[in-house]
Structure formats: structure tokens, C-alpha cells
Task: structure prediction
Amino acid sequence: VKVMLGVDIGGTKVAVGAVTREGEIRGKVMTAWTDISGPEGFVRSVVEVLREAEADLDGDILGIGLGCAGTVDWDRGAIIESPNLPIAQEPLRGLVVQALGLPTVLDNDANVAAFAEARVGAARGARHVIMLTLGTGVGGGIVLDGRIFRGASGSAGELGHTIVMGGQDPCMCGRRGCLEAYASGTALERYARQITDGGPPGPSGVALETAEGSLGRNDSEEADYGRALRELREQGRLDGEAVGLLALEGDSAAREAVAEVSRWLGMGLANFANIFNPEVLVVGGGLSTLGELLLAPARDLMRQMAIKPNGELARVEVAMLGNQAGVVGAGLLAWQELGPGV
Amino acid sequence: VKVMLGVDIGGTKVAVGAVTREGEIRGKVMTAWTDISGPEGFVRSVVEVLREAEADLDGDILGIGLGCAGTVDWDRGAIIESPNLPIAQEPLRGLVVQALGLPTVLDNDANVAAFAEARVGAARGARHVIMLTLGTGVGGGIVLDGRIFRGASGSAGELGHTIVMGGQDPCMCGRRGCLEAYASGTALERYARQITDGGPPGPSGVALETAEGSLGRNDSEEADYGRALRELREQGRLDGEAVGLLALEGDSAAREAVAEVSRWLGMGLANFANIFNPEVLVVGGGLSTLGELLLAPARDLMRQMAIKPNGELARVEVAMLGNQAGVVGAGLLAWQELGPGV
Result:
């Protein structure tokens, strides 16, 4: 059977799977820790797991698709900048070609995840798909007419760094007011902290009485309100994941923090509905495990805030492929880009 | 000579010109007032000027391109909703085909203006072009790979109604925090009013001390500061155009109001640079007559706020085609969509 190797290169691990033309993974997905001590070690750790996967497989490997965190220069096959990986400006694609002797493509991890969801996941069959990946940060992927849209130099789709609250709260990117500062796991943790400080969750420095009707804020009059969050905080265990788990268990203060993420997610989705008029908006990443608790209010707000035809048309779906999206998407991208010749 | 009729249907006037395959206007552009008393009168007024243009021309008219204000349903050839025209849900394209017997396409006016600038205007030669039209409101047009991007049902590109200040100032669309509420002629007037009220221009209800370093705000200590704006206001003549003229004459308070528009324009441009990674961002519409007074600070802020490769790559240009963009773009669109068969 003919396959492409789909490779998901994250901040701590690299995962490799053999992907068929139909987007199925054959055999098992191999994973290894990435060596982030420096560029050489990093490339070596990626190449090693690729060689292992190659040795392990009885199929014909026609090529390799790499999905990697960071800003991609498509023409050079390089990561221009990456928050976590020591790979900036290295010709990663070329180094893999050199080591493995197989045709290789390199794209951003959020792009390939969006491509996987559009081809075989939550947005299967749709022409225009926008995906937001909500984790520590907010990643974005754009699929238009069934293809990843990359822009002039390969770095389109930085959807998490669109400004939704100009000049306001600082973002991890060093700027202010980005969607990522309001609709990420990091934001969820901040909202929970605001609640434990006795305030409402939300943007700082903003007169909230001028804001839209809030989603699910309550009067916080229960004696127990916020107690579980305060306990987490005292134990030094207050982070986005812990807040999400509490919210799933029904804790009302944690739910209020999640509702604030939903509100900003809804605005972000409305923006992308207005800009792209897509059939499907997919929400993935760690926060998407909150499911409809996060998505239902965001979907409602998206429909209110988007212009009518766009809001009515766009479906908002939870990502289906979970942590396999990277491997499947990278493999499918290799099929799309390298397939016709092989 | 073979031509397409390019038709620019605005809120008050319709303009028709004969457009060559190269995007040149042959002969003169005919204009007429649109009858906005109702759908029938409206269509009649459009058809009449089309008939006049047809009679007046000695070239071969191969087809018609209509650019019309409002949200377009591309497949139906209809305007779904329009702020000013009594044409919602009417099958405008079909009615024109019926009356003139010529193949016809219908698109949004901001889309065709962007197409004109991308093909023969300020962004000539670029593959990916985003255009913002700053007038009373903010229109948007998206050209990707040399073609207008319309999304799933024809209403992509509502760039003026992307949220840049979630939950804050009301927009004409009834929602809050849209780019249009901060970077339009209407916003310019509001900023001038805020200055005459003795305050700084900007979003209401927001603690500005948390904002980015402001652009060109001064200490407002000159005795004369704001006097010209106050006089305009007393005379009931304070609007975006008057503030713009004062700013061009050097009035420092008017310039402060313009600087606030620049600031939000810069953030909007940064968002579209991050999303699309385009070669060119074009700024047109009435406010673009302010030229570099508006654009220079917006360009600087765009470069600061966009991710590095996208901010460095994107050129920010003033629209070149002025009020001919609609006619030229509608004609060129007819060539692109209808041309191969004629």
C-alpha cells in the first residue's frame, strides 16, 4: 500500500504515521521526544523517528509531510520563527530531504490540522473551512476551495493574533488585545484568577457596563462561589486545564470563567464568518474538550454578531480528529502537493 | 472594439462605462440618479442608464458587470440586504438580463473596487490584495490569487464589521466594537466631538492608560486647541469630511482626531496582514483623500502589530482609481467571468 509519512512536530514531541491517500493512518503512530537543545539535535531527533517509522513500515513511502509549530516560509521550506523550537531559519524541509531522500513538504501545524478536519474530519465535504486551535495560545488554519490558504509567503492564518480588544490586555506575542489573550487556556486561567480576586472575568481596564449582555454571569452570591478556584489557586494548581475540569463538573465560578472564553471565541468566530463566509468553523485544541459547554454560547454569539447570511450559513463544530489531526493533515498535504507525480 | 459595461450602483447614483479587456474605459461614463422609491423604479432607473450607454456606444457590448452596495447572493444574482437601496431579495441580475438580453454578473461594490485596484490600480501585479474602503462606513474586498474571494454564498469580505473592540462602541450595523465604529468617517466625526468635549478621542468606557503608546496625542495645552472644531460644531457642520479638511490644513486638534482613525486603521490592517499575508493592503474611499496623513501612522502601526514576515511584506497603498474603481472593476469582473465564452 502506498502511503505518505505524516509528521506532527510539536513543542515537546514528534509523531509520525503512515497516511493513505484517503487520510487513514496505517499501522501505529510513532512518537518521540524532540531534542530542543539546538538545531542539530532537533533535526536529528526528527530524522531518527522518521527512519524508525520507515523501517517499521511494509508499505511504499512516497513522500513526507511535515506540520510544525511556527511561522512557515513555504518557498524556502523553513520555519521563520517558532515560540518553542530551536529551528528558526533552518532549512528543515531540505534537511529532511537530504536525510531520507524522499520528496517533502513543510507547513504550519495549525494549517495541516485545519486541512485534516476539512478533508476527513468535522468539516468533511466543505469548501471553505476556518479552524481555531485553542490551547495555551490560539492557532489558526484557513482552507479555501479545499486547499490550505497560505498567502504571499506562507504565513497567512495567524488568526490568534488578530486584535479583538485594541490596546488592551497583553498577549504572549508582546502585543495587546489579540484574540489569543481572550480565548485561550491562558485567558481561562486569568479569568479564574479575576474571579478568585472577587471581580468579574474579562478584559481589564474596560467599563463592562458598556459591554454586550454578558453570557451566564451570575450574582456570585452563593457562599461557596469561587471556593474551588480559590483552593486551586492556594495550591498553585490554577491553570486552564484545571479550571476546565471544574467547569465540566458543574462548578459555577469555573463555568463563569469558561463563559468569558466562549464570549470572545464567539466574537472571533463572528469575525471569521464575516471575513470568509465559510461553511464550517472548526474549534480544536485542548479547550475544545469542553465541548458544547464552550461551543454552544460561542455559536449563539457568532450568529448574533456575524452578518445574517454568514452567521446562518456557518456551522460551528468541535474538531473530530483530536491529536491525530497533525499526522493525518501532514500526510494528506503530502498527497495533495506531491501526489500527482507519484 | 469589444467592451463590457461596468456598472457602479451606489446609494444615490448609478454610473456606467464601457470597459475594455485591459480595464480601460472607452468613451464617457454615464451617470444617473437612482430611483430609490421602490424596487420597480430602482430597476427601471438602472436599466434606463444601461440602455442609454448601449445606444451611445459604437463598440460591441459583450456583457454587463454590476457592482452594487449590499450583501450579495452570488448564485441567485441578488442583493440580500442593502442599507440604502430598495433591492433586497430582488433578482437584480436576472432583471437586467431580461431587459438588456446580455450576460450579466452581479457582485458587491467593495469587491469590484478591490478587483479593479488589484488588476489595474494601486495593487497591480499582486496576487493577494485586501482593500478597505473608508467612507461613512468601512467596506472590504478580498482578492486572492487574482480573483475576488466570495466565500460559500457570496458574502465574504465584510471586513468593516470585524470586531476590534469587543462589546464597546455601537456600530451602525447595530452591533458593538466593529472596525467601522473606529476607522470610518463617522468615527472621525465622533473623535472630533470628543475633543470639543475636552476629552481625548478614542473608544468610550476604556481605561486608556492601559492602551498602546498613543499616536500623536498632545497635551492640548495651546489656547486655540480645538477652536476650529468647536466652531464647526456650533455651526452644525462637524462631520468627517470637514474634520479631514481641517486636518489637511494643519489644525492640530483635527489631526489628533485623524490620528485616532489611523490607529484603528493600523490595527485593522495588521489583522488582515496576519490573516491573509497579502502583498498589498489598499485603502480607498473618501477618507483616503487624507493620503499619507492617514496612512503613514497606520502603516507604521500595522508593521508593529502584524507578525514580522507579514508586516514586512505587506505594502499599504492609497487606492489609485478613485470613483472609477466601481465601473472599471465591474467591467473587468464581467470580462473574467463572461469573457472566455465571448
Summary: Chain A has a mean pLDDT of 92. Chain A is about 35% helix and 20% strand. Chain A touches chain B through 63 residues (CB under 8 Å).
